[in-house]
């Protein structure tokens, strides 16, 4: 994702709705989620057309297909903007209660960056993407296990996007390749709400509110931040961060309320692990995955 506008405005929101769970909540196992983060990194960099990407698709399928009511590999091909070849991309879709028309998409990008442009060492080599790639997927794989135990009122689509992080800096049209394709070619029906998780593994987690998300879905942001506060997860901050150009944007452009839960300070405001070879599992923690995972479980079962 990219930072598109620089805003740091203190929020004075009125967080009014206390949310009580309507359904029994299965447990979110943050250590199992962290194991999924490490296991993805052990597959190697997972940029398009890499050996790591092939292994990752098999890894996700092995976990998600038995848990979900429907499982899809949505393959598509685009011309590679940076070579003469083709990009073969795959979105991964696991649907729960696929008969329901009231639906929520929970999504993350699974690809990792093919270059490390902010690293002084080997900037042309692909990154391992522990936080920027594996962390969001790790939360969603564990959420899939939760959803397989107990149904929620809305149907849920877990969607893992390919090609989020392919673009070179400033080349906006070559980011968000998978989410753009999915927003144009969704597995029907389209959802009423979209929740994206990205860069949620940072051991020093600090999740500010993305102004793009708040403009799209203020009520949804307020619900999620209120739940986090009630659960004692002070990693969720009541202030605006940078505006994000991320996988939620193609859905907002389709008129679907969509939010991005993201910590774009990795590990602090300098963001100096981002798009470098320092983005490794030791900079991430189960506690951070837990703050996001348990907040989402509580929101899902209060719908
Ligand atoms: Zn990235």
Q: What is the strand arrangement across the widest sheet?
A: 2-3-5-4-6-10
Overall shape: it is: globular
Low-confidence stretches: 5-10, 14-18
Number of domains: 1
What share of the residues does DSSP label as strand, in percent?
15-25%
Helix percentage range: 25-40%
Rg, nearest Å: 18 Å
The CATH topology annotation reads as Aminopeptidase
Hetero compounds: zinc ion
The helix count comes to 8
Question: What does this protein structure show overall?
Answer:
The protein has 303 residues and is of the alpha/beta class. The protein has a single domain (2-300), classed as Aminopeptidase. The protein contains eight helices and ten strands. The chain has helices spanning 30-42, 51-67, 130-149, 177-184, 211-216, 218-230, 249-253, 286-300, and strands at 2-5, 70-79, 86-96, 103-109, 155-161, 193-198, 207-209, 236-240, 243-245, 258-262. The relative contact order is 0.22. Bound molecules: zinc ion. Zinc ion binds at residues 1, 113, 132, 165, 275.
